[in-house]
User: What shape does this take?
Amino acid sequence: MQIDFESNKPIFLQIAEGIEDAILSGAFAEESQIPSITEFSVNYKINPATALKGINILVEEGILYKKRGIGMFVKEGATRQLKQKRKEQFFDNYILGLVAEAKRLELSEEDVKNMIERGFKK
Amino acid sequence: MNTSVSYRYQLASQIKGIVIYYLIVLCVSVLVIATSTVAISISSADDGLSGQIVGTEFATIIYLFVAACNSFREEFGMLMQNATSRKSLFIGRILTTLTISSFMVIMDKLIYFINRAAYSDDKYVVLSFFDSFYNTNSDSFKLQITGFFFHLSFNLFASGLGYLLTNIFYRSGKGGRLGLCVGLPVGIVVVLPIVDSIIAKGKISEAIFRGLDKILGVSAQKPLYGIISCFLIFTGLSAISWLLIRRANVKE
Amino acid sequence: MTGIEIKNVSKNYGNVQALSNINLTFESDKIYGLLGRNGAGKSTLLNIITSRIFADSGEVLIDGIPAKDNDRALKKVYLMSEKNFYPGRMKIKEVFKWTRQFYPDFDEDYAYKLAERFELNTGKSVKSLSTGYNSIFKLIIALSVNTPYVLLDEPVLGLDANHRELFYKVLLEKYSQSPCTIVISTHLIEEVSNIIENIIIIKKGRIIKNETCESLLASGYSVAGTAAKVDAYIAGRNVLGVDNLGGLKQAYLLGKIDGELPEGIELGKLDLQKLFIQLTNQ
Assistant: This one.
């Protein structure tokens, strides 16, 4: 999980998304414990409040939950929940940008479709 | 309250110096005893060889003065670094002064008795500083006690004076410091005697000596005056020191 | 715990006004960045808080107790500064011993562990330490002293890159495990910008900014593109400053972005260091 300090995206958001990615990839398994606030804070050299903010977003969404005295855990069903959320965001996050760039490069709709097919065959 | 730590720290800072001082005193005493013993054994009974052994009390007074001159800057820095108020520093300093002054009086008394034992024959007379001041021989118990308190208050006076001087030095700018280090000694040792002999025809030093005589009760043979005067002067000097400390800023 | 309250504090040295009417509160359990250029008044402020020097007017309260020359209040604070007040001939382990006497919550074991991590020989005397290690031993004390308020005045002066990294690591470890109020006074903004929660900017003895890092960074944005396009965009807007690189330009603006950015203009975030430089220039 990398944090880009130069990016426009606030750090706490990057943390939240980084954890989401890790859950989706299986690195953080469901019902397993994720690194503590201290670990995030020390590892990325950020204020613990920032790490906490990112984690709290996921707690509110029901992706993570807290076990008192132990730490943060991935909720059961989080993977499914995240996939659903990402599916809904897929169009905005990827398609719009892809089409805009294609237009800038003067690629036709047909060109783009062909490329997508090629991508799936890989 | 940090007063207790302030006291313990300042006391600890003094210990090493005192130990070295007494080691030197011990060595010198042993040396003097040895040479005089040899001298006595070499000489014959009516050789007229005699002498006075004056106690270490005067050396202690000088030591306390010099040590006090060195007891502010470093301690102030350390205590300020460690969240201690100036008030605690000052109280700790007073307690330290009382402790080491008392301790050194006791040590000097011990040395006095050792000397008395070592020079038990009539060739040498052992006198304490108090004795030489008031022309006594510390024969009675009452005189011993009086001498004890006299040395104590003189010690306090010396310590208080040194501490005040170093505080004046700390608070002064460049001009003040120069004035203190050069001007004061030159003024007392050179200028004053010249002015005294040429202009005042000796009246100034006369007045000074008479004044000192009065408050210390020398001619009047009243050591109690001396004890009280020294103690009061010590209190006054300490009060002025406090006035300087309470607004002192920490410097580099 | 009401924090360190600084009320109407002013201080001048002769004709120079070092601090003018400073009003500020350092709350519990936060990491503050006290930023300012050289000579802005940061050290003066920290020295006044800890009663090392006296303010000409105003007062400082630590958890409601007037701090001026008061043992009870001062014991809640540890100030680590570049100036060394520990006796030169004292060995580090002696310093630790005495620190424990003055600050009863000082964790000596932890201090020795840190000394190992920083490769500090505690048998050495204070005066025999290099500049870097002079800072390090004081940092170790600051991290082990367990006072509710820890003030660090230019903590990483003289530290090599490895030690700086280690310091920030240990600082965050300590803060995560046992939170307290930490004030980092520095002009090395880039290094601390992600660690601090609140920012206070001092300029020529006055506070010009006192807010959370987040809100300060959100108070503006930057745009980059060709010089012509950028100039067109920034006309009439509140510009903090510009960087020129040949035909390219980057401009820093205060305020919110209204509407879409025109073609050819790239949006960037406000960099704390750039913001600081723009705010404290001239």
Remarks:
- The radius of gyration of chain A is 18 Å.
